[in-house]
Amino acid sequence: MKSIVILISGRGSNMQAILEADLPIRVSAVVSNNPDAPGLDIARRHGVPVEVVNHRDHDSRDAFDAQLAAGIDRHSPDLVVLAGFMRILTPGFVTHYAGRLINVHPSLLPAFTGLNTHARALAEGVKIHGCTAHFVTPHLDKGPIIAQAAVPVLAGDTEQSLAARVLAQEHVIYPQAIRWFAEGRLRITPDGNVILKNQPPMETALISPQEPQ
Ligand code: GAR
What we know:
This protein is of the alpha/beta class. It contains six helices and nine strands; from the N terminus they run βαβαβαβαβαββαββ. It has a single domain, classed as 3-Layer(aba) Sandwich (Rossmann fold), CATH 3.40.50.170. The chain binds glycinamide ribonucleotide.
């Protein structure tokens, strides 16, 4: 069975979705840079070993990332899963985990990289927003895309209501992406796109806004 290590910084709802998705994987550890991350208690309740590598205890990004990598590598994971891990990682760290480091981002990449994605989507007036599960490369929020989920932006949406609609879909696509990885169904092409082996045919569209039916 493939093993994963999950990195979190806060709430840990994506981590929880992964822990509760009955995936064919072993979660070897949950590691946080934040000793007060509420997600650590959720992991403990699920019986998963937790570790803290506090970025405040390190003078430089390189020193923090080296300590983090040492903690991760003790578990020899097949996959490292960023689940709301809010530290920018050094190119050296990312390269060390090339092809086995994934992230979930709260936008339809390549739109809205970085922070405050929901507020920026509302400000732009986009009618469709969403989330992306992707492999991580040294370019922030730019790696090969595994899966995306789109949601409508509704009249009267606030940052909170839109974030909640997107988060519910993160909890769907991220465990699914990990399942595909575990099943060996993901391949990154030389031009940096992800192919899912045995992808079922699909022809649906999300149109937003829509007249009532
Ligand atoms: C999620 O919305 C995730 O997409 C986002 O942080 C939130 C973490 O929530 N990640 C990023 O913005 C990374 N660039 P969670 O701790 O409840 O999973």
